[in-house]
């Protein structure tokens, strides 16, 4: 028996340096799915876990989502041996008289999402999935797709799904109501904020759906659409602007900022780099684009992201249902295959010919007004100070959107018990309790401002308690200041970054007054109290298992203390770095507490609302 600490990660051992390596990665990811195709080929059921939609729709996810990878692979000349299986599945799934029929849609439905990959496939490789079919099968597919596109798609990135279906129908000569296409293209333009940034629909949400959905689909449209030159030009110009900003969501090792929902889609986060290549858009030098793309795949090759059979799990760095969304079925993670879009390009394309160049990073903070973030790069990590976005629709929305800081190397944690205040991780956030059992954290803001590279937010954990928070970069540290106004006593717990716990007690924990500190063989994490009115107690919490997204067992340094009735100011400096000389030097030089009056004056003079807050006020 061979011991494999990565489980059955299909990417493990692949150097991921060349186009051939990427082709192999795609096939290695797809092949474990073959035993799970139904007899008629129309459904792929990977486990007994459920999503909020029906089981058949989940099976359609398992069938359709791999097409995001295998379709460009085939379009680029790759030899995929299972097109007969997909032709059979398409014909049976859309045949009302077949036992594996996918079901008729009469309202907004998950099937609408999965039809996008099918539309894309019809557009890209009709000779493989359409032309060999008999006329009855073609008629059934045409009827199914023209029927499903009539209904309202969700008011967000879903609107692109009708557009992609329409590209496919147009390619195979099926007539449809083009006014519906134009309607959604215009509504999608309404989500544009400026400077290359969109919002994901009519919500306060700017997350990875902007690179791996809004721009991803927009660049596919820009490459494949006919006769819409003005819109194509806009999509390309917006993506070029966006690339200059989104590169700061990726660290020098290829890790992407862990932030927001749908992180179980994993390397879909790198889809933006492949989409730029697909659209032949050199928004950054080709070597930089390729470097981001390849490093991102290599980053994922190091983690145990698959089950024993090689099937991608629900989770992020490891199998983890706790962090999932209610719409994640076992087939959902295969949106990760969107990363393989550049396989549609020939070997001699400049993207594939370019030599990888390092990520462009800066020791100086990089403010991003639209998502309300200030980005800082440290070794093997990117840190985002975050103004906080509202997302009540998502499970663990506060943890995914409203923490004060997010990271690529250390990710973030979700809480596993809302009635276990003293066991909560609170990494990157402050938790407040009035009974020692339940707790409140920031979930939304009344206001959020950015002034240069500093952030300010006002939020209310209870209707009668107001917190103002200022976030200041001091790379590799950052500083948090909270002014809490409460009519009754509270208790506060504030957490630094969660780092991986080592086995055999080889970690070092220090619970000191005014400092929470943790050192493992790989990392150092500290939260240092700067509060002007006295020191909070420090501790290193052995967090509950399976709460962090990247590693299953973590240590979180924390500061804890009472908050009396009235007005209290709490402040801290926070740091996490890989273990070594750089970390020791940083620990020896913590930053000083800024003057709060000067900060207030700065925001009064220069503060502007961040788009993540502002856009929702229009609706």
TrEMBL record:
InterPro entries: DUF2264_C (IPR049237), DUF2264_N (IPR049349), UCP014753 (IPR016624)
Organism annotation: Devosia nitrariae
Pfam families assigned to the protein according to its UniProt record, in alphabetical order: DUF2264, DUF2264_C
Name assigned to this protein: DUF2264 domain-containing protein
Domain DUF2264: from-to ranges: 18-358, 366-583
């Amino acid at each position: 028996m061979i011991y494999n600490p990565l489980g059955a990660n299909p990417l493990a051992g692949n150097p991921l340096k060349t186009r051939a390596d990427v082709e192999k990665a795609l096939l290695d990811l797809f092949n474990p799915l073959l035993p799970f195709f139904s007899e008629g080929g129309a459904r792929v059921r990977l486990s007994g876990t459920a999503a909020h939609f029906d089981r058949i729709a989940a099976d359609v996810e398992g069938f359709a989502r791999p097409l995001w990878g295998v379709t460009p692979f085939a379009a680029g000349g790759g030899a995929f041996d299972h097109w007969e299986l997909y032709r059979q599945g398409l014909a049976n799934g859309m045949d009302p008289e077949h036992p594996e029929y996918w079901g008729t849609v009469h309202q907004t439905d998950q099937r609408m999402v999965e039809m996008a990959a099918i539309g894309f496939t019809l557009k890209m490789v009709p000779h493989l999935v359409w032309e060999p079919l008999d006329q009855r099968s073609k008629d059934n597919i045409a009827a199914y797709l023209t029927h499903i596109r009539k209904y309202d798609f969700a008011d967000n990135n879903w609107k692109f799904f009708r557009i992609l279906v329409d590209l496919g129908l147009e390619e195979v000569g099926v007539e449809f109501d083009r006014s519906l296409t134009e309607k959604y293209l215009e509504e999608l333009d309404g989500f544009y904020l400026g400077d290359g940034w969109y919002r994901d629909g009519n919500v306060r949400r700017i997350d990875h759906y902007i690179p791996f959905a809004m721009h991803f689909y927009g660049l596919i449209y820009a490459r494949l659409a006919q006769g819409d030159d003005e819109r194509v030009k806009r999509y390309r110009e917006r993506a070029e602007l966006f690339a200059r900003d989104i590169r700061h969501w990726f660290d020098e090792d290829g890790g992407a900022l862990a932030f927001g929902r749908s992180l179980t889609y994993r390397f879909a986060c790198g889809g933006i780099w492949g989409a730029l290549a697909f659209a032949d858009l050199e928004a950054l030098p080709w070597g930089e684009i390729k470097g981001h793309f390849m490093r991102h795949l290599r980053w994922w090759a190091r983690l145990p992201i698959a089950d024993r059979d090689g099937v991608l799990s629900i989770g992020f760095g490891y199998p983890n249902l706790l962090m999932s969304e209610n719409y994640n079925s076992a087939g959902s993670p295969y949106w990760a295959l969107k990363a393989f879009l550049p396989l549609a390009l020939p070997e001699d394309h400049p993207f594939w010919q370019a030599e990888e160049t390092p990520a462009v990073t800066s020791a100086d903070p990089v403010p991003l007004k639209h998502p309300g973030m200030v980005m800082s790069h440290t070794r093997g990590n990117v840190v985002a100070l975050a103004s906080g976005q509202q997302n009540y629709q998502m499970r663990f929305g506060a943890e995914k959107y409203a923490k004060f800081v997010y990271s690529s190397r250390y990710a973030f944690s979700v809480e596993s018990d809302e009635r276990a205040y003293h066991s909560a991780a609170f990494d990157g956030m402050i938790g407040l309790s009035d009974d020692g059992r339940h707790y409140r954290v920031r979930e939304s803001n009344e206001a959020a401002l950015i002034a240069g590279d500093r952030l300010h937010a006002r939020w209310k954990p209870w209707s009668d308690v107001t917190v103002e928070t200022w976030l200041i970069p001091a790379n590799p540290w950052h500083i948090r200041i909270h002014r809490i106004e409460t009519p009754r006593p509270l208790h506060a717990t504030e957490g630094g970054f969660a780092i991986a716990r080592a086995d055999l007690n080889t970690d070092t924990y220090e619970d000191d007054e005014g400092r929470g500190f943790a050192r493992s063989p790989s990392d150092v994490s500290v939260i240092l109290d700067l509060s002007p009115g006295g020191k909070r107690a420090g501790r290193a919490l052995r967090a509950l298992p399976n709460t962090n997204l990247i590693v299953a067992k973590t240590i979180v340094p924390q500061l804890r203390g009472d908050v009396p009735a009235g007005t209290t100011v709490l402040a801290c400096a926070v740091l996490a770095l890989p273990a070594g000389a750089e970390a020791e030097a940083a620990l020896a030089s913590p930053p000083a507490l800024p003057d709060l009056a000067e900060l207030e004056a700065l925001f009064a003079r220069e503060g502007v609302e961040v788009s993540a807050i502002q856009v929702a006020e229009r609706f």
